[in-house]
């Protein structure tokens, strides 16, 4: 496996830790609050993987919020914009679409992009996209318990996903513009950085180049995500 890819996956796992362990969870309700880094504490709440059976049934994203306070968990799962679990950011995909296709309920990994935007990791959707529900990689309980053992599984999962960019509040119709971070996006944002362009494009075929693992590696090297 490419050493740099092992590094970025290990870094993600280090930040995420074991997602089933209760940590300091906080949340924001809007894009503006996210940009301003304004968070509220959510006591007795944790981020946990959604079961494979439920993901297949409702085509959900990877995580949900669990709490002994039913009102709190209901609010966080249905209304919150994003949550932070320790140092890990999760974006609530429930109300969002790309090219008219819903991401489905649940949270996905998020990364603060260029200070005031959010890069999210989810399955590839959109017009003409064949959805193989169940074949799409997803987080499974225990995958983050060991960086040494879990890195390969995590890379496979991330390779089956892609990245999207959210950079604004919803418009007057309640629609949020979401961009697919494809190879054109990456090559445009890298500008004259031929070294990073070469590394990005060396990942293999189009699917490999546009995979979340390759995209995140490139964005991190460019200083656009942390």
- In whole angstroms, how far apart are the ends? 23 Å
Global structural class: alpha+beta
Range of helix content: 25-40%
What is the string of SSEs from the N terminus onward?
HEHEEHEHEEEEEEHEEHHHH
Separate helix tally: 9
Q: How many beta strands in the DSSP annotation?
A: 12
Main beta sheet strand tally, sense and closure = 8 strands, antiparallel
Unreliable stretches, pLDDT < 50, 5 or more residues?
13-22, 130-150
Gyration radius, in Å: 17 Å
Spatial sequence of strands, sheet with the most strands: 2-1-5-6-9-10-11-12
Outline: globular
Mean pLDDT equals: 80
- What percentage of amino acids are in beta strands? 15-25%
Features:
226 residues; globular; alpha+beta; two-stranded antiparallel sheet; 8-stranded antiparallel sheet; single chain; 9 helices
Write structural notes for this entry:
It contains 9 helices and 12 strands. With 226 residues, the protein is of the alpha+beta class. The protein has an 8-stranded antiparallel β-sheet with strand order 2-1-5-6-9-10-11-12. Helix 1 crosses helix 5, helix 1 packs across helix 9 and helix 6 runs antiparallel to helix 7 (194-201). The protein is globular, with a radius of gyration of 17 Å. Mean pLDDT is 80; it is low at 13-22 and 130-150.
């Amino acid at each position: 496996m490419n050493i740099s890819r092992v590094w970025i996956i290990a870094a993600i796992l280090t930040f995420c830790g074991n997602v089933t362990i209760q940590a300091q969870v906080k949340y924001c309700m809007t894009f503006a609050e996210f940009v301003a880094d304004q968070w509220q504490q959510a006591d007795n709440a944790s981020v946990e993987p959604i079961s494979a059976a439920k993901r297949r049934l409702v085509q959900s994203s990877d995580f949900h919020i669990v709490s002994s306070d039913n009102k709190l968990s209901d609010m966080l799962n249905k209304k919150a914009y994003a949550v932070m679990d320790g140092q890990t950011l999760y974006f609530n995909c429930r109300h969002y679409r790309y090219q008219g296709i819903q991401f489905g309920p649940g949270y996905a990994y998020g990364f603060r992009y260029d200070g005031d935007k959010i890069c999210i990791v989810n399955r590839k959707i959109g017009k003409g996209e064949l959805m193989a529900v169940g074949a799409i990689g997803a987080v499974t309980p225990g995958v983050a318990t060991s960086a040494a053992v879990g890195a390969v599984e995590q890379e496979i999962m991330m390779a089956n996903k892609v990245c999207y960019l959210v950079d604004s509040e919803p418009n007057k119709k309640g629609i949020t513009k979401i961009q697919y971070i494809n190879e054109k996006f990456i090559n445009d944002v890298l500008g004259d950085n031929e070294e990073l362009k070469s590394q990005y494009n060396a990942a293999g075929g189009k699917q490999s180049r546009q995979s979340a693992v390759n995209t995140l590696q490139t964005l991190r090297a460019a200083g656009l995500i942390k």
